[in-house]
Amino acid sequence: MTIPQITLNTGAVIPQIGFGVYKVDDSEAEGVVSTALEAGYRSIDTATLYGNERGVGRAIAASGIPRDEIFVTTKLWNSDQGSASAPAAVDRSLELLGLDAVDLYLIHWPTPERGLYLETWTALEGVLADGRARAIGVSNFLPEHLDAVVALGGTVPAVNQIELHPALQQREVVSANIRLGIATEAWSPLGQGGALSDPVVVEIAERNGVTPAQAILAWHLASGRIVIPKSVTPSRIAENLASVDVVLPGEDLERIDALESGGRVGPDPATMN
Ligand code: NAD
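That is the input. Now the predicted structure with nicotinamide-adenine-dinucleotide docked in place:
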C-alpha cells in the first residue's frame, strides 16, 4: 500500500489521506492515533476545538516515527482570531502537541461577522515566517473569503479544508481553490457516516468488492482531493486507509458525482460565528 501525496503551493507534500480526530476525547486520542499510525497513516488532523492535541502529541511522540514523516495539522478556534490572540493560540497548541512546529495551521472558520479573518491571516504569516507553522491555510472559506485573503497580496493559503462528501460537493468552492492554487481537503468525507447507506454507494461498493466507505474514499482520491476520514474502530481505521488501493470505473465515479443534493452535516460558513 502506497499513500499518494499531494504537493502544496509551498512545495511541501501532504499524504492524500489523513486521519481526523474530531469528537475523540483527549484521554482516548493517544490510543486512537497510535492505532492510526500503526495502520500506516502519516497525517493527523486535529484542532484547538477538539480538545485532544495533548493526546495526539503523545501518540506522535510514542510512535518513534521520525517527526518529518508525520504531517500534523491543527486549527485556530474562532474566539482566538485577531492579531494578538492568534499567535498566542499557536503557542498553546504547540505546547499541547509537544512540537516545535506544525506542518499546517488553519483558520478554522472565516466567521465573517467577527470581521477578523484578514488580520488573523496576516498574523499567521508571522507564524509561518518564524517557523512555528510550515504551511498556513484556511477552513470553511467561501470564494469571497479566499479572494479577500489573496487580495492582501501576501501568502496564498496552502489548503482550504471544507465539508465535502457525495451529498455536498462544493463545486464553486473547489473551483475557487483550483483558480487560486489552493489544495482542497474534504472534511466529513463520509458525511459523518450518513453517505455509507446511500443505495447507489452500497450497490457500487458491492459490485466492486469493496466497502461503502472505501468506495466513497476512492471517489475522493480519484478527484485529487485530500481526505481525512475519522473512525475510532481499529478495523475501520485500516479499512479506510486501504481505499488507496481501490480504483472505481469512471461510470461509478460519475454516479457518485450525481448524488449532490446540497445536504450539509455541519454549519454554513456564511453564518457560522
Ligand atoms: P467522517 O465523514 O469522517 O465520518 C466519521 C464517521 O463515519 C465515524 O464516526 C463513523 O461513525 C463512520 N465511519 C468511519 N469509517 C467507517 C467505516 N469504514 N465503516 C462504517 N462507518 C465508518 O466525519 P468527521 O469525523 O466529521 O470528519 C472527518 C474529520 O474531518 C474530523 O475528524 C476532523 O478532523 C475534520 N473536520 C473538520 C471540520 C472543520 O470545520 N474543519 C469539521 C468537521 C470535521
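The pocket of nicotinamide-adenine-dinucleotide is lined by residues 20-22, 45, 108, 139-140, 161, 187-193, 196, 211, 213, 228-231, 236, 239-240, 266 (CB under 6 Å).
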